Known about the structure:
heterodimer; A: alpha+beta; five-stranded antiparallel sheet; three-stranded antiparallel sheet; 2 helices; globular; B: alpha/beta; Peroxisomal Thiolase, Chain A, domain 1; nine-stranded mixed sheet; 14 helices
Amino acid sequence: MTMTEETNVKQNLIVLRQILEIPQHFSTGPIMGRFLKELRDNKRIMANRCPKCGRFHLPPREVCAICRARSGEFIEVGPEGVIQSYDLVYYASPDPLTGQARQAPYTTVNVLLDGVQGKDTLWHLLNETDPAKIRRGLRVRAVFNEERTGSIFDIKYFDIIDNK
Amino acid sequence: MKKNRNVGIIGIGQTRHSSHREDVNQPEMIHEAITLALEDAKMTMDNVDCIVHGNMELFEMIHQPDMWHVISDGAYGKPGLRLTTGGTTGATLVCGADTLVASGLHDVVLAVGFEKLQEGHTTGGITNMADPLWGRELQTGALTGMTADAVIEEFGEKRAKHAAMKMRVIMDKHAMLNPLAHRRFGFTDDMIPTMIDNVPPLVGELRIVHMCSQSDGACAMIFASEEVAKKRCPNPAWVMDHITIHREETFNLFGNVEEMTTMRYAAKKLFERNGITNPRKQIDVFEMYDPSSWWGLDWIREFLLLEGDEHLKMVEDEEIAINGSFPINPSGGVVATNPIGATAMIRVAEAALQIRGMAGEHQVKKDVNLALASGFGGTLWTVLVLLSKNPPKLTEK
């Protein structure tokens, strides 16, 4: 076989396939840690407040990035609030750590909790996937899980409470 | 922007973009773009002083891919920078390369952006950008129906859905003129009513054709000092200015944000300092990073500092079409082609091709003296790059 013939032979290209599974652990720090501890131990949603501009951070943050001031007191908010925006997700995207596809459909909501000053909404799940039953402005309430570990899912989801 | 000296774009290379480039590995793929850019600039790697390299590592899960790619981008033994800023990476590469040349540090800089999205998981990768202590469990990559909701609420379901799908069809008509574009469906206007209701939804009213593609591809650009550019290239595109705007905690503020968007803020600043008082008249073509047709539609109003329903009219009246009065994305845009680390660079490259009169079948008919390109990324970063046909006057801005 000449060189030309050799290079003209179709080559079956090899594609390597791998699945990654990466165990990770993240430090929460004293501020986010206190927020999660309150969820776990007391079923309370705690925001903290910028001492300069007065807006609430939810989840709490170490500093107000706008005022560059260290955040101050913790204040209980919710557990009821109003839907500010939502996403009804049909696409079964993977959990980025396990690669397992999420169950779809599901609804994520941004809830402006009662007592919050400012615009920070709490991002979570809504226990409803019928588009006809979801709209902005509906009142919702956080439902806590029986078993709580100090994570986002200490709140199971939000329930609509005035969808009559 | 203060500049020590002008910078010209004298070389541009793009691969064919596709959902599957399994015929080449990563270095081979970016080598294609670099070879084309060098050919365009009539240069070899010997003429290049520095290489700026970028993509988004979370997609292919390869850290420091520039070390692997040294075999194909010519960076061995040369100064190099690696930049990665999420979706804006490609535009940030442009800003970086421009800065390196404008500062006088290097005369010729090669920038290359790439992604092989098929080698990882795009939505999984983007989900990883969320706060691991809270949002990562909730985020669905870059997919959201919130902009669709907002546009529908403001303009009514019928008009909003039609305008978004009309914009999608215009982008596809442009992509059909661009042989390198990834998704080329051949949509026609009569398909719009059927598509509005029957294309599968991803999130809310964001449907699968509205959303940008997941592409494999690379883009390379060569930036040269005014002296080199004028000597080597009959038709450089000149970097007039660029601006990068980002802000904290956008995702917490997602609920009914009333603040000025990073798009409007960036445009306002950039236009002010470059004497642009009427962008629709003064700018000849706009390559916009349109991650979806809903965002693209909404952002026309933001970028052009419009009020009311002017942006909808621009779509409905086909002003944004390639032969319209204000062409947007003659390349087909991001909804057609999206190798993410290259995507924002492709916007600048396509704007530069329009200025240089080298866009081929998707060259706009009118003269292009001023072109705008935008980059977008998490968390709602905006980069704008302004290019001109004539070298800008070096004055302090």
